[in-house]
Specification:
The protein is of the alpha/beta class and 936 residues long.
């Protein structure tokens, strides 16, 4: 009351000084009744007594806002399992000190400012809002901080503009679609008894929802719809949204040992990799015409059992489809070209950390895609885990609140509400280019897979599910009540679907089959890449180098840095050497000059973790940035460089997806330190290493992983080279550890050359840290203009004569990376040692191993007694276990092979720098057969 009195006194002095809503009350009714008993007014043609209590008006406003904010707590969003939700009194009138009579006395416009719907009093408003916000669909958007977005959402909800209106014919079509979905599942269950299919039943409406959004996107002439989802309902989505032929799905179910089902003639084939995958992991593509020249392409990404890890992959697909990479500079983003749809599991959405990593990328410059539509396929249980054991939040969708993403909760048994939800999400994405989450609340009719018995772990829930009618029958009752269909219509629909599926199945051939064999790998995968020409004319390189040192007029670079960069101007002159960073920049420049786009991202990649790259310069006066590769006049393609968020799994998945969707581009991800790749191991294991063999998915992505033992401790020494070598098979990728800037230059250019070719494959590259500025890694200009990449190199410095007497050599050192450069340094400084009996070669490409080249080298040493593998990593890490078998096969009679390096260790390296130095010295001394010298 004191507040109202104070506001009224301000109003008397200046009516414009108080809030507009209070001004309206004071204009119409004068002073509050306890200040003036004579106040009265006429509202809606009815005399209003001065006895209207302003406190009750305030309470009514609170109630209205509570309905908008908390309506979801009382909404009918659970088809089953609602008994697990505790009661709420947030929407009860009495909680706010009101009665229905009180609300009837309050004019509607005092609590409701929307002129589109005409209510007489606050009670009518409250009843309407309860129906809107607490029905089978409910909303959470109060966490959205942008006022214009929040107001747009509220207006569309308050006025019911979000609701989809269907004609009677459209309602019949919707019922038929639900029958198609359930009928397909029923047929699979009866025909392939006990086989896993991860049925959609309980969330059947997901298919009509996807149909609806595809229809809207096609009408808007959007070029690409990129989809990702886990197993639940995947076969149904493949059949009905992606158009995968029924008979091809049936053939994938047939596991008889002596026979196989062959799809009928004319059935569309879908080609995958040579080793394949289980049927509920495969994706597909479909093209839908929209009556125009442009069609809409739908892509459902392949997805392994790691559920949510497909999320960033799909976002990468989407960004690649949106980017125009044809012009120099940053690629041009058009968010109308494509958008993503992700179907999540309720337990996985809140439980998998990669979801948060992916959501965080939604508004970042290098990763935004103009909004992804998320559908949580909420079946109330994760495998056998109840909600209370699987999350600490009320809803699975609560994670999205931290990213200010609007959320709809909708009952999967109300198909029209579900279509309204997906349409609302699409319109929001279209207007604001931001993400939207739909919590599709249904259930899972059977266990996690069709061989599980869920009643053992969720007996109460499954008793309710057993007694609950399926979605088509629930919708049928509603349509019968509305006189849209007659009794028996649904039964006839099910008979027709069953008959159609049975005819398709019966028309398939059942042939005697020999034992199935794995398909052959494509010939291009088998071919080595050694013959690819990557050398560049020296004069061309000098021109590119000159362009890299240009700056825009008026650009105020950091002077200390500019002095360092300008030293690069003479690196290609006679007698000088090109360092690692310059070689990289020249490689990039030459690649975009040839019309090949580049995208490089990673934590601190613009500058480089070790302050060596500096491909984004900052104006010290204005803070504006400039990328030297954007100033190259000869450029014929885009160059994208972005610092990434502090994420590995999410960013790795995004870049992998980008590389698959944009095969013409050279996509590069750089780890801050090589061991950071650990956090993205699922992407390496399930997608990068095996994606082509399983799904036929080509990628040419490059991973730059800083690697080398320099006394920095266990976490920043090893990029876990051994793991990539262990996964190396069937030429699935290249693993290299190069020791010169020219080798790095040629390897990048070779990788660009195989972009969009059948030979395409990823590259895992161990990159240097301390060696970045080491002159032993720098290369003369002719190494760039006269050579190509060499998988194996002669070690420098192991002889004082111009030509070594190879007949005297009894020990051949083999190694890769930094340790070989350090050996070169020690040899040069050991003036009293001849090293006549020792020679060495560097293995620059470890996988595929250059076996034939090494064989040719070994022939040069007639008296060779041993092959010695030298490495700085522990014996159970690094390359040793990978190369040991290869070296063993190369040995002649009487020869041996042995290991020099650190012993087996649990941790990649020691933590004490002085101990590291002692170990490193011991390895080199042992390899070169030097005396220990002094007290170690």
């Amino acid at each position: 009351m004191g507040y109202i009195e104070e506001q009224y006194e301000l109003y008397v002095k200046d009516p414009e000084s108080v809030d507009a809503t209070l001004k309206e009350v004071f204009d119409q009714h004068g002073a509050p009744e306890w200040m003036s008993a004579s106040a009265s007014a006429s509202v809606n043609g009815e005399a209003q007594a001065a006895s209207v209590d302003i406190v009750k008006v305030t309470s009514a406003l609170k109630l209205v806002e509570a309905i908008r904010r908390h309506g979801h707590l009382d909404a009918k969003i659970y088809a089953v399992g609602s008994n697990e939700r505790g009661p709420t009194n947030m929407l009860e009138i009495s909680r706010y000190g009101l009665t229905e009579s009180d609300l009837e006395k309050i004019p509607a416009e005092w609590v409701w400012d929307n002129k589109k719907l005409n209510f007489k009093n606050a009670l009518q408003v409250v009843r309407y809002l309860k129906e809107t916000y607490a029905g089978t669909i409910s909303f959470e958007y109060d966490h959205v901080s942008h006022e214009n977005e929040r107001q747009w959402l509220q207006n569309r909800i308050d006025t019911a503009e979000f609701q989809v209106e269907l004609s009677n014919d459209q309602k019949k079509q919707l019922l038929r679609r639900l029958v198609d979905v359930e009928g397909f599942e029923n047929f699979l269950a009866k025909t392939f008894v006990g086989q896993k299919r991860f049925s959609i039943e309980g969330l059947d409406v997901m298919v009509p929802m996807l149909d609806h959004i595809v229809q809207e996107a096609s009408g808007d002439r959007i070029g690409h719809i990129m989809m990702g989802m886990a197993h639940r309902g995947r076969l149904n989505v493949l059949a009905h949204v992606l158009g995968k032929p029924y008979d091809r799905i049936f053939s994938e179910f047939h596991h008889a040992p002596d026979k196989e089902l062959v799809p009928s003639e004319g059935s569309t084939g879908i080609n995958y990799g040579w080793t394949g995958d289980v049927k509920y992991h495969f994706g597909a593509r479909r093209e839908i015409g929209n009556g125009e020249e442009q069609s809409t392409k739908i892509t459902l990404s392949h997805n392994p059992s790691h559920l949510e890890f497909v999320n960033p992959v799909v976002q990468g697909f989407t960004r690649a489809a949106q980017d125009d990479r044809s012009e120099p500079g940053y690629s041009q983003l058009d968010e109308e070209k494509a958008f993503g749809i992700l179907v999540h599991g309720d337990a996985a959405f809140i439980g998998e950390g990669v979801v948060a990593e992916s959501l965080n990328m939604k508004d970042l410059p290098g990763y935004r895609t103009g909004g992804t539509i998320h559908i949580i396929a909420n079946n109330l249980v994760g495998f056998t885990t109840n909600r209370k054991d699987g999350r600490s939040t009320r809803y699975a969708s609560d994670l999205a609140k931290g990213y200010e993403i609007p959320i709809i909760h909708v009952n999967a048994d109300d198909p029209i509400a579900c279509l309204s939800a997906i349409s609302f999400a699409y319109q929001y994405r279209k207007k604001f280019k931001k993400d939207f989450v739909i919590d599709l609340v249904g259930y899972r009719r059977f266990g996690h897979n069709e061989m599980d018995e869920p009643r053992a772990t969720q007996p109460k829930l499954y008793k309710e599910i057993d007694e609950h009618e399926t979605a088509p029958y629930v919708f049928e009752k509603r349509l019968i009540e509305q006189n849209v269909i007659k009794e028996g219509t649904l039964k006839d629909m099910f008979k027709e679907v069953e008959s159609n599926l049975r005819d398709i199945y019966n028309n398939m051939n059942e042939n005697e089959a020999i034992e199935a064999e794995v398909k052959d790998r494509p010939g291009a995968v088998e071919r080595p890449l050694d013959e690819i020409v990557t050398a560049i004319d020296l004069e061309r390189l000098r021109k590119l180098n000159k362009e890299l040192l240009k700056r825009p007029e008026g650009f105020n670079g950091f002077k200390k840095l500019e002095r360092i960069l300008q030293k690069r101007s003479s690196m290609l002159e006679d007698g000088n050497k090109v360092d690692w960073a310059t070689a990289e920049a020249l490689a990039f420049a030459s690649i975009i000059e040839e019309g090949r786009p580049i995208r490089i991202t990673g934590q601190d990649t613009e500058r480089g973790t070790f302050a060596h790259r500096h491909l984004v310069l900052h104006d010290v006066e204005t803070g504006e940035t400039y990328c030297p590769l954007h100033g190259i006049e000869q450029a014929n393609a885009s160059f994208d460089i972005y610092n990434s968020p502090l994420s590995e799994a999410g960013v790795l998945g995004f870049e992998y997806g980008y590389s698959v969707q944009a095969p013409d581009s050279l996509v590069i991800w750089e780890a801050q330190f090589g061991d950071f790749a650990n956090a993205g191991q699922v992407i390496f294991d399930q997608f990068v290493a095996a994606g082509r063999a399983k799904w036929g998915e080509k990628s040419n992505i490059v991973f730059l992983l800083p690697h080398g033992y320099e006394g920095q401790g266990p976490e920043h020494s090893s990029a876990r080279l051994e793991r990539f070598l262990q996964m190396g098979a069937e030429n699935n990728w290249t693993v290299a550890n190069v020791t010169s800037s020219a080798q790095y230059f040629h390897l990048l250019r070779r990788q660009a050359a195989i972009s969009n070719q059948e030979e395409a494959r990823p590259l895992v590259l161990m990159t240097p840290k301390s060696l970045l500025r080491n002159q032993r890694v720098a290369s003369e200009g002719d190494k760039f203009s006269e050579l190509n990449f060499q998988p194996i190199l002669r070690q420098l410095g192991l002889t004082k004569t111009k030509k070594k007497d190879k007949e005297k050599v009894t020990s051949l050192l083999l190694g890769t990376g930094k340790i070989m450069v350090e050996i070169e340094d020690v040899v040069e400084k050991a003036k009293d040692q001849s090293f006549e009996t020792i020679d060495a070669v560097r293995i620059e490409q470890i996988y595929p191993f250059p076996t034939q080249s090494l064989k040719e080298i070994l022939k040069e040493y007639p008296n060779l007694e041993e092959l010695v593998w030298v490495q700085e990593e522990p014996q159970n890490m690094g390359s040793w276990y990978f190369v040991e078998g290869i070296l063993h096969k190369l040995l002649e009679k009487g020869q041996i092979h042995r290991y020099v390096g650190r012993p087996h260790r649990a941790s990649p390296s020691v933590g004490e720098p002085n101990i590291h130095k002692t170990e490193q010295k011991r390895i080199i001394n042992e390899a070169l057969q030097l005396s220990k010298g002094g007290n170690q």
